[in-house]
Amino acid sequence: MRKIRLVSIPSAVLLLACLASVPGKSQAQHLDLELWRLGNPDYITLHDGTVVPDPSGDPEANQRLMADANLRFRMLMVDLGLAIHPAPAHPANSPGRAGAAFEIGLRMPQIHPQAAVMSDECPPGNPNCRIWVTRGTTPGRPNQQRVPNRLILPSLQVRKGLPFSFELNSQVQYLVGSSSCVMSGGARWALNEGFDFLPDLSIGAQATRLVGTRDFGLTTASADIIVGKWFAIAGSATISPYIGWQRVWVSSFSSVIDFDPSHERMNDPTRDDTIFDDVPMAENIYDRVVFGLRLRSYIGQFLIAGTYTPMVLDMDPTLSLVFQAGMEF
Fold first, then answer.
1. 132 vs 142 pLDDT, higher one
2. Total count of domains within the chain
């Protein structure tokens, strides 16, 4: 019981600190999303009484405009979901029945800031039909900030060994430049570990939730398999390369969004409000390769890891990096 408390307290402290630091609406950060700029996915009535898309226009063209808006939302949620979902950042072996690990890290997932869904008419505030519509890229905003090619997520991970080579793990990440934190939890089972002439083999599962968002919810889940082997170095350290496969499910929904936020009619404020189509988990399943290398010595352990994700929804393959340091005891 003492060790369980020891490894859970840092995670709880970081969670409270992360949630306490989330700014309010008036303190929105440059990477916070402005989903109304993706385009309206349904007919809405603007403040001047104009209905968009124009109902008297070509019905097929209107349907394409609305479908394009829903596709931008889906692509954005998938790109963000794959970026925030952690891959296994440790070798295949477990900490042991009485063991635990405490690790701090920095994740640098690659995203697609230039990805776009081109339409006959781009949405207001989004002249290039991009999927990454952040507060920092709002047209006319002073000191505009571009969306980077990589997000920055400092993290804290805690792992606790259990009998029969099982382990539980939890991780907290903060998305730098945003008002959001990422919470993850999972379990792992080492099917084979510790043999001199056989590789270590483990399977795991993980669930992740993005918290601190205003207009949408984003949840991801994964299953993975890892194979690796440790090698002794001069009798005082070990090096453990590993490689594996991870399948990720992405699910998202939007809240009711005001698609004419600069104007509001007091007598009927919801005529310009609607929602995007849900992004169901069963239809958004993606595979990626995970790999890493851990050096462990008496002063601690250090790890560099990454994931390679093939082309997803016509978006280019990505390579994400993880740097981590900690203690296993």
1. 132
2. 1
